[in-house]
Specification:
single chain, five-stranded antiparallel β-sheet, 10 strands
């Protein structure tokens, strides 16, 4: 492990507990540029932004977004999980409590669940997806 980085396992993300509990479905994904991402669920909207090298989350109602927002529903990996229910959400925090990653499980266990990982990479939010079977958090 690199100096200064703790090897920590992801912790359940309390801000998203209600969306997970209700199996809220992902309806659309929009970008406000490289530093901002909005995930609209049928029971609320998750905003992610880059702050101090970490990810900041906020949950709110489905306020209309800026007309400049770019729709990402058709892009990888989002097109594979639009309409899928949120089944888990975990945050990876560093020693200073900065969120280094947010990991979302979309689709139920019996439906080939995908883990979408959102993490800061320089001045942008990087998104990647993997099958749950290949996810470190599953071990």
């Amino acid at each position: 492990a690199e100096a200064g980085l703790l090897q920590v396992s992801p912790l359940p993300e309390p801000q998203l507990a209600e969306l997970v509990h209700t199996g809220s479905r992902l309806l659309r994904v929009e970008s406000g540029g490289p530093r901002e991402l909005w995930l609209r669920f049928d029971r609320g909207q998750l905003s992610l932004s880059l702050e101090d090298g970490g990810l900041a989350l906020s949950l709110g109602g489905g306020a209309p977004l800026s007309p400049e927002a770019e729709l990402l529903d058709e892009t990888d990996p989002w097109w594979t999980v639009i309409g899928a229910p949120l089944q888990g959400a975990w945050s990876l925090l560093d020693a200073d409590r900065r969120r280094l990653a947010l990991e979302l499980q979309l689709r139920r266990e019996d439906e080939n669940p995908k883990i979408v990982v959102l993490e800061p990479q320089g001045a942008r939010i990087r998104t990647r997806a993997l099958a749950k079977s290949g996810w470190e958090g599953a071990n």
